[in-house]
């Protein structure tokens, strides 16, 4: 099968998200200028550079009470900071609760029964108990083609890691089984890993 996105795929559901998988989930916490906390998961998320460490996520929708975008992007545009919380399998239900399109005045930390902790390098909340959290300062917001597509880029200024996730000097993902997004309504989690050595490292 071949299709041009502009012509449509003719399938019951869009296959694009199922093709580009698995995708890590960035659980983005922010604070609005008025102090309201926000927490939302984004599966268009990844790391993009080592030195300095940088990450990205993109928002692809809008809310009636946030013209042209969602709460996360609006808050980051106001404050210039955000935190990426890494989602473990055990927190999948809380993550799902925070994905609801709630009003901008609603605190998703409270809605999902989560505890917020302060960050160290930025004025922003983070999720208590996550395996890792990346404190970020905004570098730029890029408007992508499409009505509400926004790419957010940030530099990591602080890194939190849960002590029990460190084994023999490595951050071991099998200790918490990171959640990943697949296509449609499907998710997965990492339960085992394997190592491969590059030919020029042998």
Automatic annotation (TrEMBL):
Pfam family, one: Flavin_Reduct
All copies of domain Flavin reductase like, residue ranges: 18-173
Alphabetized SUPFAM superfamilies for the sequence: FMN-binding split barrel
Alphabetized InterPro entries for the sequence: Flavin_Rdtase-like_dom, Split_barrel_FMN-bd
GO molecular function: FMN binding; oxidoreductase activity, acting on the CH-NH group of donors, NAD or NADP as acceptor
Record-given protein name: Flavin reductase family protein
Organism: Sedimentitalea arenosa
């Amino acid at each position: 099968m071949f299709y041009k996105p502009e012509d449509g795929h003719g399938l019951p559901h869009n296959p694009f998200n199922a093709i580009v998988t698995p995708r890590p989930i960035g659980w983005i916490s922010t604070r609005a200028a008025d102090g309201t906390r926000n927490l939302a998961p984004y599966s268009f998320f990844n790391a993009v550079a080592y030195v300095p460490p940088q990450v990205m996520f993109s928002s692809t929708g809008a809310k009636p009470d946030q013209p042209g975008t969602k709460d996360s992007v609006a808050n980051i545009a106001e404050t210039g900071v955000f935190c990426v919380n890494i989602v473990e399998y055990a927190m999948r239900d809380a993550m799902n609760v925070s994905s609801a399109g709630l009003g901008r005045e609603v605190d998703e930390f409270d809605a999902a029964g989560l505890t917020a902790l302060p960050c160290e390098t930025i004025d922003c909340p983070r999720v208590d108990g996550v395996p890792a959290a990346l404190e970020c300062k905004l570098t730029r917001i890029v408007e992508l083609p499409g009505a509400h597509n926004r790419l957010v880029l940030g530099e990591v200024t602080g890194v939190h890691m849960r002590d029990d996730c460190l084994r023999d000097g490595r951050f071991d993902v099998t200790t918490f089984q990171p959640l990943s997004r697949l296509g449609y309504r499907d998710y997965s989690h990492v339960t085992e890993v394997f190592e491969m050595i590059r030919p020029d490292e042998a």
